[in-house]
Amino acid sequence: MKLNIMREFVRLSATRNYSKTADELYIAQSALSRHMSALEDELNVKLIDRTRNSFELTPMGKIVLEDFKKILKNYEDLLDKIAKQTEIENGELHLGFLYYDMNYYVAKIRHIFHKKYPKIKLILHSYQPMQLEADLLEGKLDVALIYGMSGCCHRDIEYIPFLKIPYSLIYCNNHRFASRKDIRISDLDGERLLCPEAPFELNHVGDMLEKMFAEGGAHTFKKIQIHNYDEVPWLMKENDAIYISPMVNNQAYGSDTKYRFLLPELYHTDVSAVWLSKNTNAAIHLLCSAIKVCYP
After folding, report:
1. Which residues are in the HTH lysR-type domain (predicted)?
2. What CATH number has the domain spanning 90-163+270-294?
3. Distance (Å, rounded) from C-alpha 240 to C-alpha 236?
4. Topology match between the domains 90-163+270-294 and 164-269
């Protein structure tokens, strides 16, 4: 049983709302529902009373909730003990991330880091995607939070994935997809697609998209290059185009755009903490410890 499933169950029990819990944990509501059903199957016991209109735990669900809270607390205490073995009295850490994610997982990590390691100065830097990778590889950052690292074999970097997120289809409110109830990958065939102007060196999202299109039956695209990601809403409107990206912040491109998960919901990627192997800053390990508290 994974700790993240325990954390999902604990949070769901607190909010008593699937939609709110899914938003807080940055996962699809359907994924949360599947996780809870799988948890009940694994334990071979009913945890949630689904016969009522309101959310209620069964008597066994209440017992499991208390035990999960103890397990998660013990895990956090263990991480504290481990972190103290490498604790440093002072210092600083330069952390880079995508500019539109500041108020999402970045804020949570920042809060936990400051709480656990108040003597370490955490310096935040927000970026466009391409420049984030470039500055990390040039040694201007200690750690970067990067999407789509799975499968990366770059010999000079190390990384830990911590947050799994689905791909979103993004389009303007007046696009033909706005009136569709469901959108499948095969429906994208022939669409105008926004793409980065050059391949990423670390981010493997482009490779996953090619696999997604090939398996889903979408082959013909007119590609429109993105030079600056602030232009995405304008490029979509001017070209009647779509954009596909793993997104935590579904407000990144404003109120004139819509975000939808593609069906079937088979394709996900991760957000990872990434650093250069040669970087000896001990605070990197403290940051990883804080991330594991947020996303065990």
Report:
1. 1-58
2. 3.40.190.10
3. 5
4. yes
Q: Provide the phi-psi class of 74: left if phi over 0, else alpha when psi is between -120 and 50, else beta.
A: alpha
Q: Which two tokens stand for residue 240?
A: 């009647």
CATH 3.30.420.40 for domain 164-269, yes or no, is no
pLDDT tens-digit readout, 242-254: 999 887 677 788 8
Domain spans of the chain, in order of start? 3-83, 90-163+270-294, 164-269
CB 172 within 8 A of CB 116: no
Tell which residue, 158, 150, 170, has the closest CA to residue 248: 170
Q: Which of 49, 122, 64, 126 minimizes the C-alpha distance to 90? A: 122
Per-residue pLDDT, 1: 74
At residue 88 the predicted structure's pLDDT band, cuts being 50, 70 and 90, is low
> What is the CATH architecture assignment of 3-83?
Orthogonal Bundle (1.10)
